[in-house]
Design goal:
Number of strands of chain A: 5
Strand content of chain B: 25-35%
Distance between the termini of chain B: 40 Å
CATH topology of chain A: Rossmann fold
Helix content of chain B: 25-40%
Structural class of chain B: alpha+beta
CATH architecture of chain B: 3-Layer(aba) Sandwich
Number of helices of chain A: 5
CATH class of chain A: Alpha Beta
Strand content of chain A: 15-25%
Radius of gyration of chain A: 13 Å
Number of helices of chain B: 3
Order of helices and strands of chain B: HEEEHHEEEEE
Structural class of chain A: alpha/beta
Number of domains of chain A: 1
Largest interface: A-B, 34 and 33 residues
Strand order of the largest sheet of chain A: 2-1-3-4-5
CATH superfamily of chain B: CheC-like
Oligomer: heterodimer
Largest sheet of chain B: 7 strands, antiparallel
Number of domains of chain B: 1
């Protein structure tokens, strides 16, 4: 059962983040865009943390976060954005959707693994 | 019209993005500079990303070919083994490197202009880039990155403005950028 859902349209990022989390003993599921992420989260209620890109085809990450809260009515899953974006307006939109945090790419696993483990504990 | 200092600012942003996203740890940058336009595109393909605001549109074009040297380079950037990369995985690694490079420029522009938005990457055959000239760009600049005598990397920046652009951009201190850190809300 997956504890963390990684949502990114780049297979490079999905594999890098997913492999790092697995090597740290965490269960991981992968999704290719916001629409896929929403579907996989709906199918697997055990997921406790979503790590999600912002700019993706079909459905972007911020829209996905809003739909997790409004359509799936899931207020408990933690959501973190992992993105090249850093604009205050986007962060405000994310905060309004109840996201927990923001990481500017590139992913630096050792720097954040402690916080991620706390979020799935 | 784009002022000379704004053009220089765009160039600084791009070169900072190239240094941050196209150079592997341990690689030595022997040259990173603007270069004159080339007659033929330097490689077979390119990754194109765009940044749009209310005042301008910008294209960032990163050139590549599926060669052993490029495979080694982009595999190394994404911490993968070149031998293990399928063609699709290679393309994805190049796209992600372009995404990080353009993302760095996008963040810098976000400090100067509100409502800046960035695209996802798209791969084109590089001969398409010969048509950049018809965009009547206010700033069209090519760059070359040389690493340890390895295969050179090339990038084109194309900015088309809808109003006059003037800003003074200086490189931020590295410690002020916060890349890779988790900002908790």
């Amino acid at each position: 059962m997956a504890q963390i859902l990684v949502v990114d349209d780049s297979s490079t990022v999905r594999n890098e983040v997913g492999d790092f989390l697995k090597s740290n003993g965490l269960g991981v599921a992968l999704a290719v865009d916001g629409r896929d992420g929403l579907s996989k989260l709906k199918a697997d209620p055990a997921v406790k943390l979503v790590i999600c890109d912002v700019n993706m085809p079909n459905m972007d990450g911020l829209t996905m976060a809003e739909k997790v809260r409004c359509e799936l009515k899931n207020s408990s899953v933690n959501i973190i954005m992992l993105t090249t974006e850093n604009s205050p307006a986007m962060k405000e939109r994310g905060k309004a959707a109840g996201i927990k945090g923001w990481i500017v790419k590139p992913f630096n696993g050792p720097a954040v693994i402690g916080s991620l483990k706390k979020m799935v504990a | 019209m784009i002022s000379q200092r704004a053009k220089a600012g765009f160039d600084r942003m791009v070169m900072q993005g190239m240094r941050a996203s196209l150079v592997k740890p341990g690689d030595e940058v022997t040259d990173l500079s603007p270069v004159p336009a080339w007659g033929q595109p330097p490689t077979s393909h390119a990754v194109v990303l765009s940044v749009a605001s209310l005042l301008f549109r910008m294209l960032v074009v990163v050139y590549f070919s599926d060669t052993p040297a490029m495979r080694r380079h982009f595999a190394g950037l994404s911490r993968q083994n070149a031998e293990d990369l399928s063609h699709q995985a290679f393309l994805d690694a190049v796209c992600e490197a372009g995404n990080l490079c353009c993302g760095s420029v996008n963040r810098d522009l976000g400090g100067l202009y509100a409502w800046v938005g960035m695209s996802t990457p798209h791969i084109v055959e590089s001969h398409c880039t010969r048509h950049l000239g018809i965009l009547k760009a206010g700033h069209l600049q090519h760059f070359q990155l040389l690493l340890n005598g390895d295969t050179p990397l090339h990038l084109t920046l194309c900015v088309s403005e809808s109003e006059d652009l003037d800003f003074d951009f200086q490189l931020p201190a590295p410690e002020s950028q916060g890349v890779g850190e988790l900002e908790l809300f």
